Amino acid sequence: MSLEEKLDKIRSPKLQNQQQTQVVLKAVDDTLEDQKTDATPTGYFAALLALLRQAVSTNVVNKDLATSVVYLLDVVAPFAPQPLLRSKFSQILTNLAPALTFPEADAPLLRPSIGCLESLLLAQDSSAWELSYTEIGPRRAIAGLLNLAVDHRPKIRKRAQEAITTVLRSPPPSPSLDHPAADMCAETALKSLNDLSARADKNKNKKSGPSEHEPAMIHALQLVKTVAAASGGWPSKKIEPLCEVLLNISKSSNEYMAMAAFEIFEIIFEGMAGSTASSKLPRLLEVISELRPSQNDSQLLPPWIAVLSRGYDVSAQIEPDDTFQKLPELFGLISSFLASSSHNIRVSASECLISFMANCVPDSVLLHPSIFDEKVLEKLARAAIDLLSVKYQAAWMETFNVMGAMFDNLRWRADPILTEVVRAIGELRGNDSFTGKREADEIIGKAIRAMGPESVLNILPLNLAKPQAGQPGRAWMLPILRDYVSNTNLQHFKTEFVPLSEMMFQRVIDNGEAEKTMEIKIFETLVQQIWALLPGYCDLPLDLTESFDKPFAELVSNLLYRQVELRPDVCRALQVLVDSNKALVSIEAEEDLMQSRVSKEAAQKNIEHLSGIASNMLAVLFNVYSQTLPQFRVYILKCINTYLSIVPTQELMETFERVSTMLRSSLTESAAQTQAEKQKEKEKNAADKMPPLSHTLMDLVITIAIYLPRDSFSTLFSIASVIILMESDPQLQKKAYKLIPRLGDSPTGQEALAERSTELQQLMLNSAEKVSAPARRDRLAAITTLVSFLPNESLHFIPSILSEVIISCKEVNEKARTTAFDLLVLMGEKIIAADGSTIDNGKVPHMPDDAPAVTANLEEYFTMLSAGLAGGEPHMVSATITALTRILYQFRGSLKRETVSEIVETMDLFLTHKNREIVRSVLGFVKVCIISLPTELMLPRLQTLVPNLMIWSHEHKAQFKSKVKHILERMIRRFGAKVVDQYCPEEDKKLIANIRKTRERNKRQKDAAKVAGAEESDEDTAAPTNGKRKGHFESEYDEAVYGSDEESEGSDISDNEVLGKKRKAAKKSGNTYIHEDEDEPLDLLDRKALANISSTKPLKQRRPGKTKAKVDLDGKLLLGQDSDDDVMVLDTPAQDAGGDTEGGIGAYVKAIKGRDAVQRGRGGRLKFSNKRDKDEDDGMDVDEDDVKSIKNKTGGDFRRDSRGGGGRGSYRGGSGRGGISSGRRGLGEEKRHGSSGNRGGGRVRKSPRGRGRG
C-alpha cells in the first residue's frame, strides 16, 4: 500500500479514536499547502517532526497531540529517504526520547514510537553503528528497544521484539555476517536473564514461595529467543554462559520457563542448520558436553540430554559422515545413564539414543558402506549387546525401545551384526517367568522386518517339524512373522513353510472322519497360520521371477480350489504381489525407494513376469469365484481386478470373449425356459444358496470392462442394452446399470461414453418403463455418468429424462433419493456450463416435433422443472416442489431475482392447497426460503406467507403443527418477532408469543447453566430420571425448534437430503430391558429371544402362593388387604388421574405382563385374577358434595392419610360392608377411642404410630 493510500484511509476515519489523527493530518496538509511545499514523504516528515518538537518542547508532554504526530511519523518514516533519516538521526531521536520516556505513556503512544525507531535504525549504515553507547546514535536507540522488549505490557513488549527482529535481520552492508548490534543485544539480554535467574535462586533458597521474578524471567527468555532467532544463532563468545543459565532455568518447576529454555536451544540449532552459521556448531556442542550434570541429577540431566540430542541432529544434517563416526562414543556416553535409578533419566537417555539412530545414520552407510563405516556399525552392535547385561536390568523396557530403533534404522545391515541381540531377546521371550513378552515380540518382529525371516529363524528355529529334546517349540513366532514379514525372499517360504504345512495337513488327513482331537485342531490352526504368512512374503519379494514359478502357481491354484478356509490369505497374497510392485514403479521420490531393496527396474520386471501368468491365474480365479457364495466373493473380486490390470491385451480380449459368450448363452437359455423350469432352477439355487450363473458372469463383465480396448465396447454395450430391458430379473438389471458408472472410472471408458452418448441416451429413454424398483438407484447413477459426459448438442436429453429424476425424489429408498437430488444439481451445473447453447425441444419425446428451440440457461432449467407443477397427480406435484426446493437452495446465488420471486409467489399459492402431500413439500420449500433467500426478497412475502402458514398450524396429522412452529421460529430468528407478529392473524398470535417466550426461557436457562459451569457435564448422557429430559433439549418441542435443520419424525424426505447435507447418525437413547422368567434365564441364542427384549421396563407379575396371615397389634386377623399399605382413601378419582405416567404403552404392557394378566394354570387352562387393583371401583360414583358431607359428619380429613388404597373394606358408596355411615366397627377394624373418628372406617390397619391418638 502506497503512502497516499494510507493517508487517505486516515483522512476518512471509521473509528472515533482516529478523529484526532485526522485533525492533525489536515493541519499538516494545510501547512504544506500554505508553504507551497510538495506533499512528498520528505515534506510530511519535516512538518511532522516540527510538530513533534512543539508537542514535547515543554516539560509537560501534550499526550494527545504527541500520540497523533508519532502515529503519522510511523506511517511516513518507511517512505522517507534513507539519507534524510541518517542525517537527522540525532535530532529525530532527541525529539522521540521524551515520548518514549514519558511516565504516563501508553500503548497508543509507545507502539508508533517504536515503529519510528525501527525505520530509523534500518536506515543507518556501518559507520553509524560504530558510535559508542554514550553518544547519541543507533546503539542508544537499540538499548531503548531492549528495555521496552521486557516491558510488563504485552502489546508494547511484542512491538519492541518485532522491531528488534526486523533490525537484526537487516544488517548494513559489511564483511561481517552478523549485525553490528547483535553482540550488544545478546549481552544485554543475557545479563538481564542472569540477574533474574540469580534473584530467583536466592528466593528459592529462602523457600519464600512462588517467585515474583518469574514473569520478568519469562519476558527475558522471550527477548533471548527473539535475539537468537533474528541473528541466525547466538554469538559464539556468548554461547557458554547462555547454555549454563538456560540449563539452570530448564530444571525449574515452572513448565513454561523450561519450555522457553528448550525453544531457545531449538532456535539456536535451527539458526546453525544453514551453511553460513555452521562454524558455530562444534563450539556449541563442545560447551554443552562440558556442562554435563552429575550422574544422578534427575532435574538437570533430562533437559541436558534432550539438548544434546537436538544438537547432534543438526550436526548430522550439516556433517553427516563426521557425526556418524562420533556415534559409538556418543552411544557409550548416553547409554551409561540407562543404569540410573531415576526413571526420568532412563527415559531421556533411551529417547536420545533412539534419536541418534534415527538421525545420525546416513543412507550412504546402508547402501555403500566403507570399511570404516562397517567398523562403526560393529562398535554400535557391541554397545547394543552390552545394554542387555545385568547392569541395565532395571531399564529393560527402555533398552528394548533402543533395540527396536536400531533394527528400524539399520535395516538389512542389522544382519549379522545384531544376531546376538536377537538370540538374547529370544531366550528372554522363551522364559515363562519373563513379564515383557509383548515388548519382546515387537523387537523380534522388527528384527524379522530388518534382517529377514530366514536369518531370524536360523537363530530362533520354530522346532515344529522335528522337535528335538531340550529345544523349545516356538509356534508363538508365527503370528509375529505374519505381522512383520515383507521385502524378503519368497523362496524361503517355499523351502521352509510349504513342507511344514504339508506335514501338518497330512496329520489332519490321517485323522479321517474321526472326531477331531485337540492335537488335530492345533494342526489345523498351524496350517492356517502358516499360509497367513504368504501375503507378507509376497510384499515386494526379492526373488519373485525365480521363486514364483509354474509349480508354485499350480500349488496356489490347488489351494484356491480345495482349501476354502485358506482362500482369503491366498487371494490377498496374490493381490499384494502385484500391488506392491506397481506402487514401487509409481514412486518418484528417491527417499521412498530407500524403504526397500527392490529397484524400479526390478519391480517392472516383476510385473512383466506376473503378466505372463495372469491369464492362467484369472481362469482359476473366475472358476473359484463362480463356486463361492456371494457374501464371500469380495476378496476374490479384488484379486481378479488386480490381475486384470496387468494381463496382456490379447489375453484380456480372449478372456472377455469367453465370459461374454457364456453370458449370452446363459441369457438365451434363461429366455427359452418355461415358467416351471425357471421356478425349478430358482428352488435349486435357493437350496445351495448360489446365485444364477448369469449374475456371476455379469459381475465378471463389469470388472473386466474398464480394462477393455475401445474395439470391444460394442459387444459390451450390446450386452448391457439387452439386460437393461429385462424386467423379469431385477438383480441382473441392477448389475447392467452398474456398467456405465464403472466405465466412467477409466479414460478409455470415458471416451467410449462420450462417443456413444446418443446411443446410450436412447437406451435410457427406451428402458424407462421397464426399470424395476431395486435397479432405480443404479439407473440414476448411470444417468448421472451420462450427463457428466453429455455434449452441448445433446442437452435435449435433460428435459427428456427430467420427469423420471423428479419423481425419484420421492422414492422410498433413501440412497435413490439422494442420487436423484445430486443428479438434479449436476443437470443444473451442466446447463450453466453450456450457457448459450441450444436445447432442441423437437427431440424431446413428449413434445411436438416443431417445438421451438430454447437457449440453455439456469432460468430455462427452472422452467423445465416447473412444468411438473401442472401435473395431474399430487405425487408428481409434490415431487416437483421438492426438486425445486433442492435446486433453488443450490443455485440461489446465480438466479435472477425475478425468477426467484415468481417461484416463491407460486409456492405461496400452493400453500393453500388441500392435498397434504403437496403442502408437506411446500412447507419444506418455505423453510429453505426462510433460511437461505435474501431478507429484502422475503420480507414482502411475509404478508401472505404467515397467514397461509397459520392455516396448517391447527393440523395435527403428519406433524404439520410442529413443522409450522419450526418455520415460524426460524422466521422469528431471522426477521424478528415483531415483524412476524405483525402479519399473524389475531387468533394465532398466542403461538408467536409461545415461541418467543420459549426462546427467552431457554436463553435464560442457558446463561444460568454457563454461570453455574454446568454445561457439557456428564449428566447430559445419563438416563432420564424423575420424568425429566436430560438431553440437549428440555422438551420434544424445543428439540424440534432448536434442532437446526433436522426434520421431525414421519417425514418421507429429510431436510438434510433436500439441502444436500450428509445424514447424521441417529443418536441412541433410552434403555433396553429383558423380560425374563424368574425360574429360567433367557436363552439369547433362541430365535424367540428377540420377543423378550423391549424398551419398556417390565412390571413384576404377581404369582399365587401361600402368604403369612396379617394381624394387628391386638392379634386380630386383617382380611381383604393386598398390601401392607392398603388403607382406605375417601376422595375423588381426579387425585390419581396423573398416576399412570406411561400412557397407552404402559397400559398395554400392564395388560400382558402385569399382576392381573391372563395366566395358564394346570392343563393349560386360562386363569384370571379376581383381585381388584387400587384404583378399581365397581360401585356407584361418589359426588364431591357427598364426600364433603360425609367428612363433616365424621369429622375426618381423609386426604391427610396418604397411605390409602381401595381395598375391599374401603368406602364403596354405601355398600353396607363396613361402611362409615353405619357407625359400626367392621370386621378387622381397629377400635375407636373417644370421638376421634378421623381415621375413617372400613378395615383399616392399626398402625403403631396411631396408638394413643384420639
UniProtKB/TrEMBL annotation:
Keyword field contains RNA-binding: no
Coiled-coil region list: none
Keywords for this protein: Nucleus
Basic residues composition-biased segments: 1099-1108, 1242-1254
Compositional bias (Gly residues): 1204-1221
First-listed, main subcellular location of the protein, grouped into a coarse class: nucleus
Signal peptide: none
Places the protein is found: Nucleus
RRP12 HEAT domain span: 340-628
Protein family per UniProt: Belongs to the RRP12 family.
Name assigned to this protein: NUC173 domain-containing protein
